[in-house]
Design goal:
By secondary structure, the chain is mainly α. The chain has eleven helices and no strands.
Length: 201
């Protein structure tokens, strides 16, 4: 088996285990179970669990992040949207386009994702772990924008705003029964765009 196939197989299995672990925690309560109990509940050994995850926080947050992006990462989606964009398309519009894969995920896995996002928001350990991962997401988007000739300051500002807009949209979607993700993404991206060009009252 080539290294590429082996790595891909490992990522697929990691995603499946994260998905099962997150579901187990939603059903039993994150603070009520240990990593060993999660491992047993999803049918793997404790050693196997820790081969793929640093902690139970890592497993649950990984499941939410993988489900939300589908393409693998927000940065990867931004890169693909940038490569497909017509000349003259603004970077901000490209970043909004990069979120479209999230919309289909929200539509097909709505109740499950809502429960997971609410759990992450309600459990301090999970919320803190997600915040730490947001930094790596943002840095990856910065790298994508730099590679496409954004200056350093602009790349950092746009990456921070884009990650924040996505996070706010997911949070409102998760706590609003019946909400649709697309209009929320549109609203938050529009709001950030308006903030960038304020008018004095």
């Amino acid at each position: 088996m080539s290294n590429g196939v082996r790595d891909r197989s490992r990522e697929i299995l990691r995603g499946e285990l994260a998905d099962a672990a997150a579901t187990f925690c939603v059903e039993h309560g994150f603070d009520e179970v240990t990593a060993a109990e999660i491992a047993r509940g999803i049918g793997v050994s404790r050693a196997t669990f820790f081969r793929y995850f640093a902690s139970k926080e890592d497993a649950v947050v990984s499941a939410a992040r993988l489900a939300a992006t589908r393409a693998g990462s927000f940065a990867q989606s931004v890169a693909e949207a940038a490569d497909a964009a017509a000349p003259g398309t603004t970077v901000w519009a490209i970043m909004r386009t990069a979120t479209e894969s999230m919309v289909s995920t929200a539509e097909t896995r709505g109740d499950l994702l809502r429960a997971r996002i609410r759990m992450i928001s309600d459990v301090p350990a999970l919320k803190g772990y997600l915040a730490s991962q947001r930094g790596s997401d943002q840095s990856a988007v910065v790298d994508v924008l730099r590679a496409r000739h954004c200056d350093d300051r602009t790349a950092h500002a746009l990456a921070a705003a884009g990650v924040a807009a996505v996070d706010l949209a997911w949070q409102e979607w998760a706590r609003t029964p019946g909400a649709k993700l697309r209009p929320l993404l549109d609203a938050y991206f529009a709001a950030f765009g308006d903030i960038a060009t304020p008018k004095l009252m």
